[in-house]
User: Which sequence fits this backbone?
């Protein structure tokens, strides 16, 4: 597939080539000849270097927010076509609940963004207490993305990994999927790099450069700017080997059955989508 940029480059190269062909002979002409020729060569280089096909797509980015971002204009955020998802702080420890959580979830989803929730781990209370706090705030039906357990060194002191493991286990049992683990490269190396955690997606925070640790998501800045968010916001992007599909909540069995049920063979042998009257009403309502 030829991009718009490549088409423009080809047109310019064609015009410059014609100029070269129309040049008159002579020393002055030879001097003038070099300008369009060099320019054409440069444009050919740009053409070859220009991204094509899937590589021409912009990188998918995501943000994570909490009460510190205050009131967010989610419609403005959604207008940034590179921002496709958001992780919203729900809880911290045993009793802290983000006062903006419910509003952020509702408005972000309404604006068309995929939403996930995170819990900030505390080493001061049990896994059961922290899980109860998270479960009370985070409804599975409102989650587009897998939950995140946020483990930050300056909050935890000693990690108590048995407690971390139990919390991961409780979250997986409730939400039907292994949570993603957000952490620093140091904590990853010291506590989370073993085989025990290989099945977990890792969300690495590194503001100095490309992570050396294994990761699915990379939070590359804490001082980003996105229209609709006042002040700084954390921004993340995927490892080249991963995509949004890897962190989406798994579909329910009932959803899969409905999808299968909604397809039937048409008379000409092609797949035709069968949509029930109730589904049509729901679709019309969403539009």
Assistant:
């Amino acid at each position: 597939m030829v991009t718009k940029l490549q088409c423009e480059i080809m047109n310019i190269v064609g015009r410059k080539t014609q100029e070269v062909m129309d040049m008159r002979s002579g020393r002055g002409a030879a001097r003038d000849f070099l300008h369009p020729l060099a320019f054409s060569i440069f444009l050919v280089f740009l053409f070859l270097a220009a991204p094509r096909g899937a590589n021409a797509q912009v990188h998918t980015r995501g943000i994570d927010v909490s009460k510190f971002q205050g009131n967010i204009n989610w419609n403005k955020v959604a207008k940034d076509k590179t921002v496709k998802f958001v992780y919203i702080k729900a809880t911290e420890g045993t009793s802290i609940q983000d006062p903006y959580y419910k509003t952020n979830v509702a408005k972000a989803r309404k604006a068309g963004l995929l939403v996930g929730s995170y819990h900030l781990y505390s080493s001061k209370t049990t896994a059961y207490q922290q899980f109860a706090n998270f479960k009370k705030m985070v409804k599975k039906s409102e989650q587009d993305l897998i939950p995140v357990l946020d483990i930050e060194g300056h909050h935890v002191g000693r990690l108590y990994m048995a407690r971390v493991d139990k919390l991961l286990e409780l979250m997986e049992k409730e939400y039907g999927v292994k949570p993603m683990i957000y952490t620093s490269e140091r904590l990853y190396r010291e506590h989370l790099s073993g085989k025990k955690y290989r099945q977990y997606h890792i969300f690495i925070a590194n503001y100095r450069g490309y992570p050396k640790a294994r990761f699915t998501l990379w939070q590359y800045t804490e001082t980003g700017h996105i229209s609709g968010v006042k002040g700084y916001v954390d921004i993340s992007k995927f490892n080249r080997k991963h995509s949004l599909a890897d962190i989406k909540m798994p579909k329910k069995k009932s959803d899969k059955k409905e999808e299968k049920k909604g397809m039937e063979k048409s008379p000409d042998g092609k797949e035709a989508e069968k949509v029930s009257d109730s589904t049509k009403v729901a679709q019309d309502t969403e539009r």
